[in-house]
Specification:
The complex is a heterodimer of chains A (about 700) and B (about 325).
Chain A: E1 17-28, E2 31-43, E3 48-52, H1 59-65, E4 74-83, E5 86-87, H2 93-102, E6 104-108, H3 111-114, H4 121-131, H5 136-149, H6 155-159, H7 168-180, E7 186-190, H8 198-215, E8 218-222, H9 226-232, E9 235-240, E10 243-249, H10 250-255, H11 260-268, H12 309-313, E11 319-322, E12 325-327, E13 356-369, E14 372-385, E15 389-393, H13 400-408, E16 418-421, E17 424-425, H14 435-440, E18 441-444, H15 448-451, H16 458-470, H17 474-487, H18 504-516, E19 522-526, H19 534-551, E20 554-558, H20 562-568, E21 571-576, E22 579-585, H21 586-590, H22 596-603, H23 644-648, E23 653-657, E24 660-663, H24 668-674, H25 684-689, H26 699-705
Parallel strand pairs in A: 3-8, 3-9, 6-7, 7-8, 15-20, 15-21, 18-19, 19-20
Antiparallel strand pairs in A: 1-2, 1-4, 4-5, 9-10, 10-12, 11-12, 13-14, 13-16, 16-17, 21-22, 22-24, 23-24
Helix pairs in contact in A: 4-5, 4-7, 5-7, 7-8, 16-17, 16-18, 18-19
Chain B: H1 2-29, H2 34-39, H3 45-55, H4 61-73, H5 87-122, H6 127-141, H7 144-158, H8 174-209, H9 211-219, H10 223-252, H11 255-260, H12 266-275, H13 279-307, H14 309-316
Helix pairs in contact in B: 1-13, 5-6, 5-8, 5-10, 5-12, 5-13, 6-8, 7-8, 8-10, 9-10, 10-13, 12-13, 13-14
The chains are: A alpha/beta (about 700), B mainly alpha (about 325).
Chain lengths: ~700, ~325
């Protein structure tokens, strides 16, 4: 890590970005509410600075302020913003435009939405050069070169395409190309990899790192992912309720967090392979204050375990912890002793030798689109035992969600697929299943907003589930409803509210209560925490663990966050192109990963420890399920490709050690031997050979259109 | 793309067939003997019978339906019972009259509606926006014949600058014809402006809020370029669909306006045919309006998918 590296030479020139005591307010319902409360920070030339905090802390506002781009209801109420020493607030409209063209660029979340859907990629990139004064042909020529620099293998063909024809990762490369087109002095990245696959995220981050060195750009990197922060940034700031509460070199802050909020954030994330049976995750009690609320002198007081009388009375100064490491806490020297919010002991794991509750064999799902058969699931098999968690990982397009939907019966599996519940075969379609079977197999979706009916009260949502699944009515139902709300830690006083009035975490609790209404045997959790902040995520994960221990329910847990999956899972299944590539006990699958695909997946994830393994590049994108590669479906991207046998012969799912299965021509010993050396860097020609564009039909997309 | 068109055409034919069945058998349900109504209560029964035979109305309904349909395929829409002239000579000139009125209304309302809507969106929440949104919506809720009466009172009687009827004297030139059509067209403009402006406004507001618009601003493009290049094209797509469905309404559904302005459009022809039980005119006329409607929506869909790259490529994949 570069935290110990000497500070870049920023002696003579002004910093790339400087915020001085910046206050920004939004006008909501006629009242000005403070979003940023006196933020002071400075990003040196060629430095990369990270900003963390829960959503609503003002991270994005700070970023947009650096471009003087505020929503119509927003305004700077105090302080100044300087880019390269020039004050933005005193600039005319034209000067601001000039600044956006030449000096500051921004890349943000959801790249596909960031590009205009009805203009070709080439025109959108060339526009930036035209703006900087290049004439037509030259602008296109330079756009072509720039797309090459962001490692797009066939710029000419990409330039002719529209954003929807490219994958998310490819679109993010295009956005980065546009942002770096005019060699800005400051590049702002606002959650640039949220929503992208782990493997794609790894590629995009590598690219940003490489280009930063080439262009010498300063970075303002906003993320809630502390692993990404550790990988990308030299210094970091922690923002809470619009105030910078801690600042310092990344490694230093991670090693010695000196503000209770930072301590809480770090304790929330499942790190370093912690598991549910050894440690419960900590949470940060309470909620982020409402926008513009009256806050005590120290903004964090209400959620702080260390708070004393002085915190209400006196605003803490920016205490110097070590050189360059500051904390706005009266008790910065003992911040790490902040008591845990969840002292509940972990649930010890018991050995279960019971018959599986759910078993799938030969599970297939084929979608038909425009005459093409798309095999979203090809011969999936696994068994789920009582009270166990099976984690399911894989890139988008690997069939995770399709598998979840097929099990639940929302998207019926093909003829001949076997799904058994307690040994009894289930009908593929949920409408043909018996009520007992339906209540035994429930699901929690990723986005509680769309999973809960907006017009119903929480009371009605949970009550309906009780009536539909258990046939309960009247007083008995009311009693049950209260118990259920209590068991998911949902305040009964809020039971009359509608989903829109609740926070994301509370909504997800309601969704969990709904799934548990019928005393399920198995709950499928499809990315249940990926839309939530880390502290809320920790609380939900703890809740799931607790419910599992008390109700002996089994989970099929889908997530792209490997840390979360490892925390929660007893066993892990790795899916690729609708096939189980590996299935085994959690500690064997990822500690250390052996199967080549698992190895690549695992190495793509930046960890908060910053101890990054040598990353194994996966070449290109996941192939189309409409025409999967011959032989081993992974051979086109495999870092441990053996030779013809991989291309010609599909390996069977075989048991390599008791309870541990994989699909690979290598045996366990052979792989251990091969993995002693890093895989050969794959030549870029192989990248070009793989289809670069989104002509591939993702099973999930097909699903929506059928 | 061809596949898409073929599919739409196929569906259109099925719709037309259903329409033909509906209108034909629907009119058969109405009581009364065709020849008796033509000849009057004092004609002899044998004269009635022979006229029925001549008209083919003594045959079973299925045979009559088959005759009608095969006639249409041969380009023969039938003969009017009331006037004894061919249906085509009644329906097509009326259709042309209607089209003229519709085109004039369109030429006025589409640009005004779009500009008004986009302008309102750019001034969202301000006075100008309220004026256009509330004004447009209020104008839409007033039925067209009320506008007709009001406009006639105002511009033909109080300030007599425009004629109160829509039919120009025979032999008048293009400009005179347009002058006669202005008042009825204005009624339609008032009714349609609100719809179109509202769609254009909603589309523009959505596009202004979109991430790609933010990208364009952050690139450093001047605001006018952002609106012109990045906002409008995406914003106006939904408006096109609405405009096209209104085309069908404009051509087929203007009975009230045509009556008030005494204009020989297809609406008035159909209305008269229905009240006189002139089934050949009614049936073939309805069918032709159906064709116009289908063609208009098909063209709208085509325009929409040509402008929207997402649809264009998916259907040709």
């Amino acid at each position: 890590m570069s935290a110990t590296a000497p500070q870049p030479a920023a002696v003579e020139t002004a910093p790339a970005l400087e915020l001085r005591d910046l206050e920004v307010a939004y006008r909501v319902r006629g009242i000005w509410r403070e979003v940023l409360r006196g933020v002071t920070l400075s990003i040196g030339r060629n430095e990369s600075y990270g900003l963390v905090g829960e959503s609503g802390c003002g991270k994005s506002t700070a970023a947009f302020a650096a471009l003087r781009y505020l929503p119509r209801n927003g305004r700077v109420t105090r302080g100044s913003i300087l880019v390269d020493g020039q004050d933005l607030l005193g600039m005319s409209e034209n000067e601001v435009r000039e600044l956006r063209v030449k000096k500051v660029s921004m890349v943000y979340q959801n790249p596909t939405a960031a590009l205009n859907p009805s203009i070709r990629i080439g025109d959108q990139v060339a526009e930036v050069y035209a703006l900087a004064g290049a004439h037509d042909g030259e602008a296109r020529q330079r756009a072509h070169e720039m797309l090459g620099k962001v490692q797009i293998s066939d710029p000419a063909s990409v330039m002719r395409r529209y954003p929807h024809q490219l994958s998310g990762g490819m679109n993010q490369r295009v956005v980065i190309a546009m942002a770096l087109a005019t060699d800005p002095s400051l590049l702002i990245l606002d959650e640039p990899t949220t929503g992208l696959d782990a493997t794609v995220e790894g590629e995009v981050l590598d690219l940003v790192k490489m280009l930063r060195e080439e262009f010498g750009t300063s970075l303002l990197f906003i993320t809630h992912n502390l692993g990404v922060m550790a990988k990308m940034c030299e210094r970091m700031g922690v923002l809470y309720a619009g105030r910078l509460v801690e600042e310092g070199p990344v490694a230093e802050v991670f090693a010695r967090p000196s503000h209770p909020y930072t301590v809480g954030l770090l304790r929330c994330i499942p790190r370093g392979g912690v598991r549910k049976d050894r440690e419960t995750l900590d949470t940060i009690p309470g909620f982020l204050p409402q926008l513009g609320a009256d806050l005590p002198a120290c903004v964090f007081t209400d959620r702080c375990g260390l708070a004393e009388e002085i915190c209400h009375r006196e605003e803490p100064p920016f205490h110097r912890v070590t050189d360059g490491h500051c904390s706005r806490c009266h008790f910065y020297d003992r911040a790490q002793t902040v008591p845990r919010a969840t002292p509940a002991p972990p649930v010890p794991r018991e050995d279960r030798r019971v018959e599986p509750v759910l078993e799938a064999r030969g599970l297939r799902k084929t979608f038909h689109q425009e005459g093409n058969a798309i095999h979203a699931l090809a011969d999936v098999q696994f068994a789920l035992k009582e009270g166990e968690t099976l984690g399911l990982v894989g890139e988008s397009g690997s069939g995770k969600t399709t598998l979840a939907r097929s099990l639940i019966g929302l998207s019926p599996a093909d003829e001949g697929s076997v799904i058994e519940l307690d040994g009894a075969r289930l009908a593929p379609n949920v409408t043909k299943r018996k009520r007992d079977q339906v209540r035994a197999l429930q699901i929690v979706f990723q986005n509680p907003d769309s999973a809960l009916n907006r017009r119903f009260s929480i009371h009605r949502i949970i009550g309906r589930a009780l009536t539909m699944l258990k046939g309960e009515r009247g007083e008995q139902r009311e009693e049950h409803l209260r118990q259920l709300a209590h068991s998911v830690r949902f305040d009964v006083r809020l039971i009359g509210a509608r989903p829109a009035q609740l926070s994301g975490g509370l909504k997800q609790r309601v969704a969990i209560a709904r799934a548990f209404a019928g005393d399920p045997r198995i709950v499928v959790c499809d990315e249940p925490t990926s839309a939530l902040d880390v502290s809320v995520q920790a609380a939900i994960l703890n809740l799931l663990v607790e419910l599992q221990a008390s109700k002996k329910v089994a989970y099929l847990f889908i997530s792209h966050d490997l840390g979360v999956v490892r925390y929660l899972s007893d066993r892990i299944a790795v899916l690729y192109l609708g096939r189980v590539m590996e299935l085994g006990p959690a500690e064997h699958v990822f500690d250390p990963p052996q199967h080549p695909y698992t190895e690549a997946l695992g190495s793509a994830v930046p960890t908060a420890e910053g101890t990054e393994r040598e990353r194994i590049r996966l070449v290109g994108e996941i192939p189309s399920a409409a025409s999967p590669p011959s032989g081993c479906v992974f051979h086109t991207r495999c870092p441990r490709y053996i030779g013809d046998i991989c291309r010609d012969e599909e390996p069977a799912l075989r048991e390599v050690e008791p309870g541990h299965f994989w699909r690979c021509h290598y045996s366990a010993e052979e792989l251990r031997e091969v993995q002693k050396t890093p895989p050969p860097e794959q030549p870029l020609t192989a990248r070009e050979a793989s289809e670069p564009t989104g002509g591939n039909l993702r099973p999930s997309e097909v699903d929506r259109s059928t | 793309m061809t596949r898409f068109i073929a599919k739409r055409l196929g569906l259109g034919l099925i719709t037309l067939w259903l329409l033909s069945v509906l209108v034909f058998f629907g009119s058969q349900v109405l009581p009364g003997d065709v020849a008796r109504r033509v000849l009057g209560p004092f004609a002899t029964q044998s004269a009635v019978n022979s006229l029925n035979h001549q008209l083919g109305t003594d045959k079973s309904v299925f045979v009559q339906y088959a005759n009608w349909i095969s006639g249409i395929f041969h380009g023969n829409l039938g003969t009017s019972v009331a006037t004894r002239s061919s249906v085509s000579s009644i329906v097509f000139p009326a259709l042309w009259h209607s089209a003229k009125l519709a085109i004039l209304a369109f030429i006025i309302v589409v640009p005004f509606g779009i500009i008004g809507g986009v302008f309102a969106a750019l001034k969202e929440g301000r006075f100008q926006d309220r004026l256009i949104s509330v004004g447009g919506l209020s104008a839409t809720t007033v039925p067209e014949f009320v506008w007709a009466v009001a406009l006639i009172l105002l511009f033909a009687l109080l300030i007599p600058i425009l004629p109160s009827t829509a039919t120009p004297p025979p032999g008048s030139g293009f400009l005179t014809s347009v002058k006669f059509l202005i008042l009825p067209a204005l009624c339609l403009v008032f009714v349609l402006f609100g719809y179109i402006a509202r769609m254009a406004r909603a589309g523009t507001i959505e596009a202004l809020d979109a991430d790609y618009t933010r990208t364009a601003v952050i690139k450093g493009l001047p605001y006018s370029t952002v609106v012109r290049r990045h906002v409008l094209r995406n914003a106006l797509l939904p408006t096109i669909a609405v405009v096209a469905t209104q085309a069908g309404y404009l051509i087929g559904g203007l009975v009230a306006i045509e009556l008030v302005f005494n204009y020989q459009g297809i609406g008035q022809v159909l209305y008269r045919a229905a009240s006189q039980k002139d089934f050949p005119v009614l049936q073939s006329g309805v069918l032709i309006v159906g064709v116009v409607y289908l063609v208009a929506t098909l063209l709208a869909d085509l325009a929409y998918s040509l402008l929207n790259p997402r649809l264009r490529f998916e259907s040709s994949a």
